[in-house]
Request: fold
Amino acid sequence: MKTNKILSLAILMAIAIAPAAAQFKNEQDSICKTNRFLYGEAYKNKQYEEAYEPWKIALQTCPSSSKNLYIQGAVILKQLFNINKDAEKRLALVNELMNLYDMRIQYYGEAAEVTARKAYDLQVLRGDAAIKEYYELYAEAMRLDASKLDVAFIERYFEATVRYVTKGGADTTLIIDNYDIASDALDAIVAATTDSAKKAEVYGVIANIENRFSPFASCDQLVSIYTKKFNANPEDLTLLKKITTILRKKKCMNTDLFFAATEKLHKLEPSPSTAYLMAQMNYQRKHFSEAASYVTEALKGAEEKDKYNMYILQGLCYTEANSYSAARAAYNKAADLEPSKGEPYRLIAQLYVEGRRSIDDGMNGASAYWAAVDIARKSMTIDNSPENVEAAQRLISSYSAGFPKQDKAFDLDLIDGNSFTVPGWIGVSTTVRTRK
Reply:
């Protein structure tokens, strides 16, 4: 019985409240529409002081009724800031603007874009007095989603970084770290667009950032900064990737730090790309057997498009190690992958001459020159690009001068035009040619 009385009371209260709630909602709608109209008229006439109060009432009454409340509200607050000369009031307007951006994110999202605009407005309105705050807002926008930002904001982010550091707010390392972040973001935007005008815009921003970065980007500076970090955390994968990426971008690969960081990265997270990097660096350091071993490792998991260069490097390693047959096999594999390129055949021609003294033809290996000229000519038949033709012709001219003298060949019963098989590891059939 008692329960029934309670239910009845609740029903009666609900019936009484419903009209009141509907009336309140109608009043809110009326206030919202009236004040949106009032501020809108003043806004159109650029009467920003008159627009301020009704805009504020509309924002408080119906904050989710229109995104224009936030877009136009930002204009109103910035115009009032410019009109007002009182420092305290100007600061209050800036704070109100920052809160407005927070409300916009709350009701309409677009957190990265709005945060970047918030950073820019704070930078314009308060300048270096708020350098830490606006830098942190730019950084937050980048963390939220750099791909959503206009490239101008990415440039401003990096400029804010440089300014923050040069004003003494942070260590130079921040410039290097944020250059890496900005570069990656811009590279991703370039890769994602087919619009030539957009690409040109992004390339312009990249050039501007490169110019700003240059004073902080000498190899000595980068190595000095990152060596300390590397020594402190030599197994930090994120740091290792950052070190190798930025040193590669700035062409600082011929450094002990790059070698050490890449070697450590390869041990912790081996991949075909790190193995290939190790091969390249060992080759440069004349550690040819180690380089060849790393190339073999890289080839096991590499994509087909990457294997050509790997086989070329493998051939060079074997050449330096006097493993001539293995070198030729590597060059032939490269030729199979890129059948229209003359480079592998030119390298085989050079290989024949390099290894000529290891064969016994009675002419101190001079028959290798015949085989070398043959294959240099072959390179021109399959690759008639100006670069390849010029390089092959240089080889032919040089190697023709190494043909045996006519009298020497005659003593060996060798006659111009006759067939001859080059002995030893070369083992190819060629034609006798002599010089006077």
